[in-house]
Amino acid sequence: MEPTTEPKPEEITKSAEDSASSTKEEEKKTEQKVTAFEVEAGETGVDYNKLIDQFGCDRINEKHLEKIEELTGKKPHRFLRREIFFSHRSLDWCLKSFETGRGFYLYTGRGPSSSSLHIGHAIPFIFTKYMQEAFDLPLVIQLTDDEKFFHKQDLTFENVHKMGYDNIKDIIAFGFDPEKTFIFSDIDYIKYLYPNVCKMQKALTLNNVKGVFGFNDSDNAGKYAFPAVQAAPSFSNTFPHIFGKKKNVPCLIPQAIDQDPYFRMTRDIAKKLKYEKPGCIQSKFFPAITGLSGKMSASLANTTIYLSDDPKQIKNKIKKHAKSGGGETLEEHREKGANLEVDIPYQYLTFFMEDDEELARIAEEYSSGRMLTGEIKQICADVITEFITEYQERRKKVTDEDVQLFTSIRPINPKSSKMPEKPAEEAKK
Amino acid sequence: MEPTTEPKPEEITKSAEDSASSTKEEEKKTEQKVTAFEVEAGETGVDYNKLIDQFGCDRINEKHLEKIEELTGKKPHRFLRREIFFSHRSLDWCLKSFETGRGFYLYTGRGPSSSSLHIGHAIPFIFTKYMQEAFDLPLVIQLTDDEKFFHKQDLTFENVHKMGYDNIKDIIAFGFDPEKTFIFSDIDYIKYLYPNVCKMQKALTLNNVKGVFGFNDSDNAGKYAFPAVQAAPSFSNTFPHIFGKKKNVPCLIPQAIDQDPYFRMTRDIAKKLKYEKPGCIQSKFFPAITGLSGKMSASLANTTIYLSDDPKQIKNKIKKHAKSGGGETLEEHREKGANLEVDIPYQYLTFFMEDDEELARIAEEYSSGRMLTGEIKQICADVITEFITEYQERRKKVTDEDVQLFTSIRPINPKSSKMPEKPAEEAKK
């Protein structure tokens, strides 16, 4: 996961054309480039409406939330309530499949580029855990050691595999249910992936891969080989120990929206291979401490909150580096209030504070200027510290035996999972 | 194996330039294009001297034969005595490694494009069996199901794997020793291949692959991914169950010369990966029944001798279709004799008649016009029938249990094999 995704060149162009009629200032604000390598945007952050149009995804709406509440009997996750997971492909089809007893499974992943996760990495895992629990779904999690090896010149094969192993422990610590979760590294599970990898690689021309990812002839052969490896877990017959003879079980992939090109490509090929198209449910980026113009990156240690940070480090990073939407001076702040849209502490609270009413209260207090920047930073540090502390408690307890358990090739059988006995029909979209 | 190999474009050009000073008629004779897809040559066949120059290999000479006889205590195989295996890379290094107790192993393979082998496919296996026996060497044999799947549009993944399985039985029937031989399909053994596949793929740019194989952007991604899969068995750490902790055991690859581009590339990368460069020992092509301008092809059923043919079919194919070097009329033949160089029955005898003196007698009788075309065709049919009948006897006895035995992941331990305890130094060439 987290691969070298780039929108098709024509889509980048389209984006530029869209803003051609705007004034120069507006242009500067909305100018953006979203790839898995980098997220560049203006100070007001990524224009997600534009991204949905570019990629051709659909917006998650009130009806989806109502349906999810109906099917799970629970209030939808705050990431859904607050439009953090905001975009999808074939979500309706997956929900319908669940409702009619056919079921679906979840697939997510991680590229082990560092031995410690940061808080941005947590978003898809938090959401996936919620989905697994709420719908009682089987879940597969892929560690793309190979991809990170191809894309990071200085990583050795052995090191990346070692980091992947450590990351499996980090992932387990999000609280996934071992009865329902299979975690695998591509390197170890490649024998099972390989039939679908080959089928994908045969169906993809170099032109296709270049078009989707923007590679050129100086890129290594592994980068061209890899997209098929990320695609393979989208098809249920990649997991015979989970799905047995059940064919074409639908798959839903929680992901940050920059992964969309991978699965747009996968969906195109699925059609050719007569496989069910995987669905996607897509999040906004977790913003960098320094502001909305980028997403959090593991390469900037001082401004990145790691899941291994202690409370003091968390507090320091937020207090010192978090971009504020508050006024320049106390007077200005009291008078005009804070701009919540660009205020990183407030934005972080939308990700991590569970209580809607308390969040609304803070929004009101802060935007009116009654609450000061120092205060909201403290609240933010407290909320994040609470999340990370709880995470670290679970992380400490994860053992090599747990890794053995989660990664062993075995049946996983959610009690109430409704797996189809017959091939599902092609997803409509 | 038998992949889409093409000499580098500049090499093809070089070949054309070499003959630019010749007369047009000479040009026509020597014009040739050698790829794994096709062998095009004039009526006098492939100019192997030119090919050695193009590819940058070395000719096998009398000293090699003397050394082989010294090391094995046996007369070198007729394929060596008759320059059918005529070219090499790092053969001296492998022989030296054997002589000094470091040892080496053999690697060959087959791409399962048809469920029945033809007699041309037998050549590398006959030679490899000789090498295994004479030197008492461990041997690995790769079935490149994936490669054939990528290169043959109409083959399904399941069919090609089924053909590969049948081909394993055909290969076992050449008489390989199960104590010394490990046979594997890429699809089944990919987990062990994958670390070296990834390392190769990272080290190869698209430009490299295009340069060696002549692919373009309309080719599928699998074709670009595959060369690394064929390369991986050249490195002994791909087989931990055979070589254990022994590092960089030298590898010698018996092959038809059209496979050279694969291993030229592999040798280049080996250097980057600090692996031992594999050696190669290379054969001429087994010519088509219809003449030296092509190699035998499985796609022309009437003029291809299959290892499943019965004596009547063999006789018919040779009598009806074998290109003759004899005179046009009986008178002309008696007067001028036969041209052995272009006579297919005689050429086939050089491959399959063991007795040097008898072969010399036939050459003398036939080239002088005393022996007639019908007579040499009969001798040829008899010799080939004997070979194929014996082969079929062995083939009948090969069981699913034999496949299980040869393909199981296990130690293989030739009694007298001298495997190095320490990494071998880099091959000089």
Automatic annotation (TrEMBL), chains A, B:
Main location: cytoplasm
Regions of compositional bias (Basic and acidic residues) in chain numbering: 1-32, 418-429
Record key words, sorted: Aminoacyl-tRNA synthetase, ATP-binding, Cytoplasm, Ligase, Nucleotide-binding, Protein biosynthesis
A Pfam match: tRNA-synt_1b
Localization in the cell: Cytoplasm
Region annotation (Disordered) ranges: 1-34, 409-429
Enzyme class: ligase
GO cellular component entries: cytoplasm
GO biological-process terms attached to the record: tryptophanyl-tRNA aminoacylation
Catalytic activity: tRNA(Trp) + L-tryptophan + ATP = L-tryptophyl-tRNA(Trp) + AMP + diphosphate + H(+)
Entry annotated with the keyword ATP-binding: yes
Cytoplasm as UniProt keyword: yes
Record-listed E.C. numbers: 6.1.1.2
GO molecular function, one term: tryptophan-tRNA ligase activity
PANTHER family found in the cross-reference section: TRYPTOPHAN--TRNA LIGASE, CYTOPLASMIC, TRYPTOPHANYL-TRNA SYNTHETASE
UniProt family annotation: Belongs to the class-I aminoacyl-tRNA synthetase family.
Protein name as it appears in the record: Tryptophan--tRNA ligase, cytoplasmic
Organism the protein comes from: Euplotes crassus
